[in-house]
Amino acid sequence: MSTVNANVKELPDSRVRVEVEVPLEELDRRIAQTARSMGKEMKMAGFRKGKIPAEVVIQRIGRDAVVDETIRGSLGHWYAEAVEGARLAIVGQPEVELGELPPAGEDLKFSFEVGVRPVAKLGKYKGLKVERRDAAADPEAIDAQIEELRGRMASLEAVEEAAATGDFVVMNYVGSIGGEVFEGGEGTDQLIELGSGRLIPGFEEQLEGIKAGEERTVKLAFPEDYQAEELAGKDAEFAVTATEIRRRILPELNDEFANEAAGLETVAELREDLATQMLAADGDKAEEEFREAVLDAVADNAKINLPQPLVDARASELLDRMLHQLSHQGISREMYFQISGRTEEEMLGESAEAAQKSLRHEAALVAVVEAEDIQPGDGDILTALQASAAQEQTTPEKLRERLEKANRLDDLLEELSQRQALDLIVESAVATSPS
After folding, report:
1. Which partner for 342 in 28, 47, 331, 346 could form a disulfide, CB atoms 3.0-4.6 Å apart?
2. Cα–Cα–Cα angle for 264, 270, 273, nearest 5°?
3. Total domains, the chain
4. One domain for residues 73 and 174
């Protein structure tokens, strides 16, 4: 249950202004919490550390300071409650206006403006004729997959020939800068693949043509952005001795290979098995393409106003979402832009088309939900929660209760209703052969 009151005023260009009132009871409760938290670090005669009453902390620090800290810590929560209570589908970041601190005994008031999902005026959305391609298993793709299997089962064998791209060099090396061996610059029995690009630029190229037992001096400069700052940008020499050249030897494409690779009797059976898998995978892909094409058609038939600021806001959301996912892989925002060689502005520009499509799709689906009065039932909810409940070792019923208590059930209901709306328009569509 929301602890704030929100009054929503619609503005042009898919924006709203929300006036929020935090009742005195909620504000005082939060102020007391903040004061107790601040008091944990205070020392005051007559009180044990961490046991100073909230009113004493407020008196000592000053009410304005405690209220200011309370607002800093609680504004995000109150904003989220206002959005949830008003059932706003926000797009982008809000512009918050916070006036003077409220005097003792008065409610807190603040307001914000934010973009919201655009409203679609539907055109025809049932029985649309949309192209759908047939699933296919390309013989060349089958060949490529077989070669990939051979590559996985390849063996490395020592050869007397000179090393070429794709060969592996077993080497000992000593690296030096200005005649002095640097820390971490020595290695023995190191296995590197020529052409892999895993070493400092220029290193692998200078080993082309080397033979077992041969010595070479590799000269290069460390990149300016090299992770070891003491080496970045410096010229270095590596005394390299190749102890062995190994080459990847692919297994023969015969029935024995088919048996080892997939447990099948013949190469013909292997190709047939791969074709079946590819047909199934391409069939799923064709279905997804068809569903998206149907949704594109419904959105194209609808009237949807997309102001540029709204598109820009969604593009920023899409970029932030991608960067957040990359952060779980240890790739920071700065690192990604450096690796990609593009600026944030360039990335946002490239995301504009995806942002427009995303907004149009959402608006169209919400309009279909309203037009068809789609309301997921209890069975739909419990079915949707089965997988998550199993992962969390609980029941769908208990997981639903948790979502309801956390005010997150509405998000699931919206997702399910839009999914059902998409199913409806796809099932009514007429698939046609590509022209």
Report:
1. 346
2. 100
3. 3
4. no
What predicted TM-score, i.e. pTM, was given to this entire model? Answer: 0.77
Cβ-based neighbours of 218, under 8 Å, separated by 6 or more: 173, 202, 203, 206, 207, 237, 238, 240
Element (H, E) at 278: helix 267-301
Place of tokens 């047909």: 279
Give the domain-ending residue among 361, 395, 429.
Answer: 361
* Cβ burial 106-143 (10 Å sphere, 16+ → b, else e): eebebbbebbbbbebebeebeebebebeeeebeeeebe
- CATH label of the domain that carries residue 204: 3.10.50.40
Query: Which one-letter amino acid corresponds to residue 123?
Result: G
In whole angstroms, what is the distance from residue 295 CA to residue 367 CA? 12
Same-domain check for residues 106 and 171:
no
Give the tokens for residue 1.
């249950």
Q: Looking at the DSSP assignment, which residues form a beta bridge with residue 131?
A: 432
Nearest to 222 by CA among 287, 153, 276, 176: 176
Residues 21-48: b if buried by 16+ CB within 10 A, e if exposed: bbeeebbeebbbebbebbbeeeeeeeee
Residue 40 · residue 32 · CB < 8 Å:
no
Task: Note the pLDDT tens digit of each residue in 16-54.
Answer: 999 999 999 999 999 989 988 887 777 776 777 767 788
Could you tell me the residue range of the domain that residue 109 belongs to? Answer: 5-116
**Judgement on whether residues 159 and 242 belong to the same structural domain of the protein:** yes
| 17 closest CA partner among 127, 96, 101 | 96
Instruction: Tell me, yes or no, whether 112 and 194 share the same domain.
Output: no
Q: Give the integer Cα–Cα distance in Å for 312 and 342.
A: 17
Structure confidence at residue 16 (pLDDT)? 97
Measured CA to CA, the distance from residue 177 to residue 271 in angstroms comes to 54
225 and 326 assigned to the same domain: no
